[in-house]
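testing teh design pipeline on a random one, pls ignore if ur not involved
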């Protein structure tokens, strides 16, 4: 019973038993074939000897050539040789089966051990591949190990993002909550007066909390795809000017110039006006945060083949090359020492990426380095229909 349980629960035992069954079947086939072929082989051999050496066998007469004693000796010798060969082959097969089963099972055992460590929360666990084979040299076990390591890397990154999310959200919540709590305690203790400035400060910090919560909810929706795009032909210039108008006052208050350049005759794009407006607000607002007073931000749109490209270029602090591939990641901050409004949390850019990709477009960032400004560009497919322009034209 223990042996049966071991065979059922061990891949190595299963492989070894399979090899033994194959070898046993081969030996049985060999013995059966020998038993069936020995008589005819003996007769054929003796007949050939009689025909080729008649002088050495003058007493042999035509007819059956099988001598019982001679045939018995021949058959015994043949069976003995076959048994010795089969025994040697079986022994060699057993040794090779053990080696092959161990070689096959060992990577699986390492994979099982790594899987258990991953399940225990050790997401940095990887399966060793030894000498890395090329893609053409990989067998199924190598491919399984590579896929496992890729999965572990994604889990490790997801866990890192989760920890970063908790830290970022805690940090972002702590700052306005601390300000609100301090203001309320000051009002309670009589240190602060319930005047317009104090109430405005409390209202501003509460609004900051509300925006963070809204961003988190929106991020959850767009990553889960839990929204519907209401596509229709849209006039790009109207879309840009509408987004710029919503932030015009903030640009004026900070002293940053905002300009718009649209290629003449630009075709319409197919998209959801509210969602694309959200993308533009994220990009234009991000440019405002990082651009010092006295500098400028430029919006530009032009056609490139079957798509329209929209660009938001600022003269801000720039982005180092090593940060460019990550600026659209969730909660990624170029400068970890900064918080809102200076450094941001990266939620807006992540939302923008998901929305642009949902429209069938692409989005990317470029920068020449520190204090050289940044450029965010995204594409949208051209729509064949007429632009959604009001009767009075573009505002």
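output:
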């Amino acid at each position: 019973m223990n042996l049966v349980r071991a065979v059922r629960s061990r891949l190595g035992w299963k492989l070894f038993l399979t090899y033994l069954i194959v070898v046993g079947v081969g030996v049985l086939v060999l013995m059966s074939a020998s038993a069936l072929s020995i008589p005819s082989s003996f007769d054929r051999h003796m007949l050939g000897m009689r025909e080729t050496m008649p002088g050495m066998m003058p007493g042999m007469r035509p007819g059956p050539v099988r001598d019982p004693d001679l045939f018995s000796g021949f058959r015994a010798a043949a069976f003995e040789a076959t048994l010795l060969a089969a025994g040697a082959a079986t022994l060699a097969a057993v040794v090779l089966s053990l080696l092959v089963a161990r070689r096959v099972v060992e990577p699986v055992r390492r994979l099982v051990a790594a899987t258990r460590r991953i399940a225990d929360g050790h997401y940095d666990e990887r399966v060793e591949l030894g000498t890395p084979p090329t893609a053409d040299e990989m067998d199924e076990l190598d491919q399984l190990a590579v896929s496992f390591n890729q999965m572990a890397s994604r889990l490790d990154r997801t866990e890192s993002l989760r920890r970063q999310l908790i830290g970022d959200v805690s940090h972002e919540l702590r700052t306005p909550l601390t300000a609100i709590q301090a203001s309320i305690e000051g009002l309670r203790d009589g240190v602060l007066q319930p005047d317009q400035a104090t109430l405005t400060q409390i209202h501003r910090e509460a609004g900051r909390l509300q925006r963070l919560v809204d961003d988190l909810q929106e991020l959850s929706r767009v990553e889960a795809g839990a929204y519907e795009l209401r596509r229709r032909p849209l006039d790009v210039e109207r879309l840009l000017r509408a987004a710029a108008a919503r932030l015009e006052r903030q640009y004026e208050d900070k002293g940053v110039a905002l300009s718009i350049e649209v290629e003449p005759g630009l075709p319409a794009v197919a998209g959801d006006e509210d969602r694309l407006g959200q993308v533009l607000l994220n990009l234009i607002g991000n440019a405002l945060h990082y651009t010092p007073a006295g500098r400028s931000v430029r919006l530009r749109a032009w056609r490139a083949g079957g798509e329209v490209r929209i660009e938001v270029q600022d003269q801000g602090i720039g982005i180092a090359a090593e940060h460019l591939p990550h600026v659209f990641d969730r909660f990624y901050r170029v400068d970890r020492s900064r918080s809102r409004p200076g450094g941001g949390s990266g939620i807006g850019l992540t939302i923008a990426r998901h929305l642009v990709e949902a429209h069938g477009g692409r989005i990317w960032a470029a920068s020449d380095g520190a204090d050289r400004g940044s450029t965010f560009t995204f594409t949208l497919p051209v729509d064949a229909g007429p632009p959604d322009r009001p009767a009075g034209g573009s505002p």
